[in-house]
């Protein structure tokens, strides 16, 4: 059987590509910045992108490549680019096709760091954003578009709202408007969902979360679906000759991989937010158990969500696999294998109730993290979404009483016990 026919669980463990006699069974860490050549001509060809090969680890390193190839395969893309963090992945994904004077349409239910990036930091560089509700109709989303709109952005599972977006609706709008749909797939992970299968053009991840799974390493990755026509007049940087590279055209010279190639050879080269090989090695280790962890996260989270839904001290619970969730139908369609491990819940008693609940938990710690194997909690309004106005917090699904619970892979009875006791004590 060819390794290309493997199901995803086998791919995660075994990887792909040919077996070679005598190769290391675990992909090693290439802890090197540089690569040896004996001829300046070969190096010149590498610099001109006329030949494949490593020259300097800011732009490429074999361990990092192994991680990129694995993610590209899992997400069914034509190529991937690893970066130093999820933030670096999202800003690179945007800046690869947006410059001063351009505009982004984004769903409002996104991670606080990305919302800050769109709302204030990118604005200082002349890139503006309009936010729309994930429940907006196609017509309403289209009215947010301007002449200069270059991107439609959303998160598969909004962090922390835990709504599931309607990929097909976004893809129809993107096609009609001639702009790519970029989706941050962090909270679903490449095991629970592959947005490119539904027509999404670019996928990003914070690898820091489920891909690592152990709270040990920061990293991010962009995957190119290779399914967007960049030659539609809106993206001259990908089509017109690039004077920084002897007038090559990414679209003509790299075809389907135009977007991801440009991101590497211009933005990674110039901004330098590269992933280090040690973290790439940790992510490769993490991926080998991703399917097992996501199954357990999803199973435990559903049990915890059902318990919370019926608890008298809980005001509301957002978890996409609860029938009461407004995302239930989208979750059925796009997340058939599970709803992931994050629950957003509203504790009765407003902000004070939420803070007391967190303080009453014992071994479930308050941690600025999500996607970790260990169960942990966070109060988004006073942490990750702190910089947003109260109105914008509410639009992003962050109410004062909201607690984000990252349900880990421990025994669910222990998780339920700590939660039940904490609720009793408030
Ligand atoms: C954490 C997170 C990010 C940012 O990732 P870092 O690795 O922390 O930089 C981006 N998007 C989502 C959905 C996240 O959860």
Can you walk me through this structure?
The chain is globular. α7 (167-177) links the parallel β4 (149-155) and β5 (181-184). The protein has a 7-stranded mixed β-sheet with strand order 1-7-6-5-4-2-3, sandwiched between helices. It has a 5-stranded mixed β-sheet with strand order 8-9-12-11-10. With 426 residues, it is α/β, with parallel strands linked by helices. The protein contains 17 helices and 12 strands. α3 packs parallel to α12 and α15 packs across α17. The mean pLDDT is 95. The protein has helices at residues 8-14, 40-47, 62-74, 86-95, 112-124, 138-143, 167-177, 189-192, 236-239, 250-254, 258-271, 277-287, 290-309, 328-334, 350-360, 390-395, 412-424; strands spanning 79-83, 103-107, 128-132, 149-155, 181-184, 202-206, 220-224, 314-318, 342-347, 365-366, 376-378, 402-406. Residues 85-87, 90, 111, 113-114, 155, 159, 184, 186-187, 206, 208-209, 218, 220, 370 line the site of pyridoxal-5'-phosphate. Pyridoxal-5'-phosphate binds next to α4 and α5. Its EC number is 2.5.1.49. InterPro entries: Cys/Met-Metab_PyrdxlP-dep_enz, OAc-hSer/O-AcSer_sulfhydrylase, PyrdxlP-dep_Trfase, PyrdxlP-dep_Trfase_major, PyrdxlP-dep_Trfase_small. This is O-acetylhomoserine aminocarboxypropyltransferase/cysteine synthase.
């Amino acid at each position: 059987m060819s390794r290309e026919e493997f199901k995803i669980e086998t791919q995660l463990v075994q990887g792909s590509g040919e077996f070679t006699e005598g190769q290391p069974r675990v992909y090693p860490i290439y802890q090197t910045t540089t690569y040896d050549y004996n001829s300046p001509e070969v190096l010149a060809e590498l610099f001109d992108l006329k030949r494949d090969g490593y020259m300097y680890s800011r732009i490429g390193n074999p361990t990092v490549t192994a991680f990129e190839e694995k993610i590209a395969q899992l997400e069914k893309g034509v190529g991937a680019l690893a970066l130093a963090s999820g933030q670096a992945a999202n800003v690179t994904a945007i800046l690869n096709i947006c410059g001063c004077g351009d505009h982004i349409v984004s769903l409002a239910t996104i991670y606080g760091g990305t919302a800050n990036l769109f709302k204030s930091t990118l604005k200082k560089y002349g890139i503006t954003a309009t936010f729309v509700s994930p429940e907006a109709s196609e017509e309403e989303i289209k009215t947010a578009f301007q002449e200069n709109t270059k991107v439609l952005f959303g998160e598969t599972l909004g962090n922390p709202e835990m709504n599931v977006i309607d990929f097909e609706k976004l893809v129809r709008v993107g096609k009609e408007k001639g702009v790519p749909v970029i989706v941050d797939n962090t909270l679903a992970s490449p095991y629970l969902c592959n947005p490119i299968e539904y027509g999404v053009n670019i996928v990003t991840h914070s690898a820091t979360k489920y891909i690592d799974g152990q709270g040990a390493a920061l990293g991010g990755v962009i995957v190119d679906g290779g399914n967007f026509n960049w030659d539609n007049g809106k993206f001259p940087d990908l089509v017109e000759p690039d004077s920084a590279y002897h007038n090559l055209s990414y679209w003509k010279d790299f075809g389907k991989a135009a977007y991801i190639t440009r991101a590497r050879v211009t933005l990674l080269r110039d901004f330098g937010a590269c992933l280090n090989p040690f973290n790439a090695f940790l992510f490769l280790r993490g991926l080998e158990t991703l399917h097992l962890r996501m199954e357990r996260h999803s199973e435990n989270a559903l049990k915890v969500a059902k318990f919370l839904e019926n608890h008298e001290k809980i005001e509301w619970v957002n978890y996409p696999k609860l029938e009461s969730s407004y995302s239930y139908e989208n979750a059925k369609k796009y997340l058939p294998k599970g709803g992931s491990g994050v629950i957003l819940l509203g504790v009765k008693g407003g902000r004070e109730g939420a803070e007391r609940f967190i303080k009453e938990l014992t071994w479930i710690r308050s941690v600025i993290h999500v996607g970790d194997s260990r169960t942990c909690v966070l109060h988004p309004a006073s942490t990750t979404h702190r910089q947003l106005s109260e109105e914008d917090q509410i639009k992003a699904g962050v109410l004062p009483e909201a607690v984000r619970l990252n349900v880990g892979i421990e025994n669910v009875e222990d998780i339920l016990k700590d939660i039940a006791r904490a609720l009793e004590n408030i």
